[in-house]
Amino acid sequence: MVLVLNGVLQDDCPMDTTSLFMQHPVYRDYAQQLLSIPTKSVGAVGLLYVGQREMAAAAPHDKNINIIGTDDATTCIIVVVRHSGSGAVALAHFDGTGVDEAVCTMVARVQELALGYPEGRIELQLIGGYRDPQSYGEEVFYNIMQSFHKHHLEIDLTQACVGELNTILRGDLNYPIIYGVGVNIKTGEIFPATFPERGPDRELRDARNFMGAQTVLDIYDASLGLLRIGPFNYDPLRGADLWLSQTDDFLLQHLSTSPEVEPPHFTHHMRATIKFIQENQFPAITVFRDNRPRYYRRDETTGFWTLQNFALN
Fold this sequence. Notes:
The chain is of the alpha/beta class. The protein has one domain (3-306): CATH 3.30.1330.200. It has helices at residues 17-23, 26-35, 99-113, 136-150, 202-210, 240-244, 248-255, 266-279, 283-286; strands at 3-5, 8-9, 40-41, 47-49, 54-58, 67-70, 77-83, 89-94, 122-130, 155-163, 167-170, 173-176, 181-184, 190-194, 217-218, 220-221, 226-229, 294-298, 305-307. α3 packs across α4 and α7 (248-255) packs across α8.
């Protein structure tokens, strides 16, 4: 009983987005404020990009990061947890897998980064999960709300731009309005965003999801200022050649939960991911030698993430 909606501690968790908005119409106003902000295209310098089934947390004084962000969320929901006193923030891209554990990790990371700041609340913002035909977005919303409601801390929902509030009708099809957001970790500002550059090891990270990873990967070590990928492994993909020989439309229909509304680059990214899996059937051997993560540090001159050739214990 620790979820706070519109300032009121809740005994029960809303079962769906419709119930939430009927009981707390103020969230419509909050969503409208976010939707009124122009979408920004965010460059690579100072960016920590979070992919699907990934999360990251940072504090305002972090010299490596200005923006944490993610995009390409259709039926997925972007989750932002922030400590109002310290400004420490965590962002995740949830598709329904590994939510319980990830929610606990997000809150724990924010608490760690907020040490020394006794004043402040844990605030929660949800963006994405448009009203899709199969109600996948509603399932993800319910999983997220249940996970936060079970948490022992009071958590204040301050934004819920989800479901019908993030849906626009084009012709006879529903489309998401916002596909991605960025969070300015210095100011706490959250805004609609796209990310032409998505950081290192994109195909490797996407391969993990394609092959059915069941956890949300925490990709940033804030104490060391290092982006951290892996280690992880997956089984070889049978029929990679067959997948790659299919048409774009076939890939779209079979690999997306929302084929009608995917961004134009979806199939290109899918092909690159399958090709990577084909060439790295055992990443524990070809990528994560000696079972070591791949660490990246922000280059102070260029602002880009650069691979570090060292091992950390």
